Amino acid sequence: MSEKMTKKSVWHEGEIFLQNKVGVTERMAEVGQRVIRDYMPEQHRDFYAQLPFIVLGTVSQNGEAWATFLEGEPGFISSPTSTRLTIAASLPGEDPAREGIEHNASLGLLGIELHTRRRNRMNGTLQQTKGGFQVDVDQSFGNCPRYIQLREFTFTRTPGSHAGGPVEMLPGLDTKAREMIQAADAFFVASWAEREGKRQADVSHRGGKPGFIRVSDDGTLTIPDFNGNLFFATLGNILLNGQAGLLFVDFNTGDMLQMTGEAKVVLDSPEIAAFQGAERLWTFKARRIVRRGNALALRWKFEAEGLSPHSLMTGSWQEAASRIKAADLVTRWRPFRVVKTVDESLSIRSFYLQPDDGAGLLPHLAGQHLPIRVKLHGAEGPAIRTYTLSSAPSDGFYRISVKREGSVSSHLHNCVSVGDTIDVRAPAGTFTLDAHTQRPAVLLAGGVGITPMLAMLRHIVYEGHRKQRIRQTFLFQASRQVEDLPFTQEINELVKAAKGAVRVIRVLSQPENVQPGMDYDAHGHIDMPLLTSHLPFNDYDFYLCGPATFTQSLYDELRKYNISDDRIHAEAFGPSALVRTTDNQTPKPDALQPSTSPVPIAFMRSLKEARWTPDSGSLLELAEARGLNPEFSCREGHCGTCRTKLLKGSISYPTIPSASTADDEVLICCAVPAQLPAGEENRIQLEL
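Predicted structure:
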């Protein structure tokens, strides 16, 4: 690091303000001196030299920011020294970004390869030359690639040549411009800040799923800011002066839509929590708009698999609006329409339900039940029952699978058809799959007790594919006869999708006219001899659901085998509840309960942020989902390999680990954020 960079603060007050909001100000003061350079590393210089285009951010004399593309054959950018970039090209006269191209002006540059997701940013001082211009480095740094969509490029003509496309000055966003913005999965934003009496320009990339930008009737754009690096250069600039320039490119036609106007950072809004993946929002209202047809010689080809996996994990404005509307209805009965029914066995029928009030589904956990309310013929008031959801949280619908027994279930079987509506309240219940561990799961289902197990199995397979690691699972399903076995085809499909991670053992007490090994796997009942004959030696989590006698007897047998009470998750239905015998375990006196709401997490060494939610799993799983590779071994808190410094915040262990830790250490393989008392905010920083 040269003397020049150490004499002034790397971050300006806008960036520092946002870093403070995340709680990383002190850490970023140290990090900034290390990662923000006043020269280009060799790999950055080589990278710029191979690019077919570069993104520019300019600022006019009156403070208007513009973003644009400058293209050329690879090699049109060169770096004669580590502090200088030479660009052998110039902007056409109709490009509004030319207003900021003048001697000694500040220029922001973004080198980005859409076909590799590599990108680097730089800003500096512009010097015009005969063949183009050169930029002397002020700041140079690498950038996170996680929301870049993969695209291969080709040239349709000589780069820089003018194709004679129309140039339009728009008074506002017309239909074509709105459609271009709303279909975009990427755009570019120029911004600037005043630093020590001089403007410093910047330009950056933003990406998401198509439709991640909302366009209001008055032309205001609202954009979610997803978790990323902790620099906050763009939003920090906007925070200081409220100016930005946006560039949208039609990668198929070469059209460019350039805008300059007012921007605003939004840190407090219910829409932030409702929009999946959003950490904050910002808005933009155009003051000047220029549309240039066929402006680029470059074209890009996009394949469906090129969408960033990180973008796929983000939400949409439609989903956010539905969540906000549904959250207001969490304590109310809501009409749901039956969209499909399926007979799963001789006595069990599934009902697929979708909201009929315009609001979205409320999220649920695998294993929870759904309260419903129906009006029975001849009854004075409605009857209320709860049925376990047999659908996974990821399915996009509610499904209850009801056995015909009793007045309400008979009413559902006899009187409710596709197109009918029933009243539904928010899912509830504490018998849920423990998402904080990868410990093998054993699901024990008796009769219709298969319904929560099916939801858990669907969730295990879905999450396993999402995280590329499916949790080992054994499902024991018991019925009297083969005709009573529900969901056979669905379970077989899940077993196939799990590719060896899931095994199913079907048990019949009265097998008649069926083949062992094909129609069923064992004769009798689920008991310890059966379990020990099929389960390899390991440490399991057991989930039990069925009639009261089924659940109680299995629970008692497991306890006799020294399976600890906290490893046996059970729900009995019938006249009596499960009677437990608890272990004499003494938790730490300062033990806190797991958080039930989102908690911001900052990984300080890698300069990444994330938002933990109750379905994110352990802190280790969250770090892996963020692209980090922490050391671990057992994933159960036994070996201590995953010990990590806890720099800030409070954590909880849903299952007490056996490995020891210092006061400032945490076993991230089995830790989750803690629920703090009302009024206290939990923000976690890990040295990772």
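Summary: The chain is about 20% helix and 35% strand.
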